[in-house]
Amino acid sequence: MYDRLTKYLPIFDWGRDYNRETLSNDLIAAVIVTIMLIPQSLAYALLAGLPPEAGIYASIVPIILYAMFGTSRALAVGPVAVVSLMTAAAIGQIAETGTMGYAIAALTLAFLSGAILLIMGVFRLGFLANFLSHPVIAGFITASGILIAASQLKHILGISSHGHSLVDVVWTLLQNLGDTNVITLVIGVSATAFLFWVRKGLKPRLRALGLGPKLAEVLTKAGPVAAVLVTTLAAWAFGLDAWGVDVVGQVPQSLPPLTVPSFEPDLIAQLFVPALLISIIGFVESISVAQTLAAKKRQRIDPDQELIGLGAANIGAAFTGGYPVTGGFARSVVNYDAGAETPAAGAYTAVGLAIAAVALTPLVFYLPKATLAATIVVAVLSLVDFSILKKTWNYSRADFFAVAATILLTLTFGVETGVSAGVILSIGLHLYKTSRPHVAEVGLVPGTQHFRNVLRHKVETDDTLLTLRVDESLYFVNARFLEDLIQDRTAKGSPIRNVVLMCSAVNEIDFSALESLEAINLRLTELEIGLHLSEVKGPVMDRLRNSHFLQHLNGRVFQAQYDAWQALVPAAKAV
Amino acid sequence: MYDRLTKYLPIFDWGRDYNRETLSNDLIAAVIVTIMLIPQSLAYALLAGLPPEAGIYASIVPIILYAMFGTSRALAVGPVAVVSLMTAAAIGQIAETGTMGYAIAALTLAFLSGAILLIMGVFRLGFLANFLSHPVIAGFITASGILIAASQLKHILGISSHGHSLVDVVWTLLQNLGDTNVITLVIGVSATAFLFWVRKGLKPRLRALGLGPKLAEVLTKAGPVAAVLVTTLAAWAFGLDAWGVDVVGQVPQSLPPLTVPSFEPDLIAQLFVPALLISIIGFVESISVAQTLAAKKRQRIDPDQELIGLGAANIGAAFTGGYPVTGGFARSVVNYDAGAETPAAGAYTAVGLAIAAVALTPLVFYLPKATLAATIVVAVLSLVDFSILKKTWNYSRADFFAVAATILLTLTFGVETGVSAGVILSIGLHLYKTSRPHVAEVGLVPGTQHFRNVLRHKVETDDTLLTLRVDESLYFVNARFLEDLIQDRTAKGSPIRNVVLMCSAVNEIDFSALESLEAINLRLTELEIGLHLSEVKGPVMDRLRNSHFLQHLNGRVFQAQYDAWQALVPAAKAV
Question: Looking at chain B from residue 535 to 564, which residues have their Cβ under 8 Å from any Cβ of chain A?
Answer without folding.
Answer: 537-539, 543, 546-547, 559-560, 562
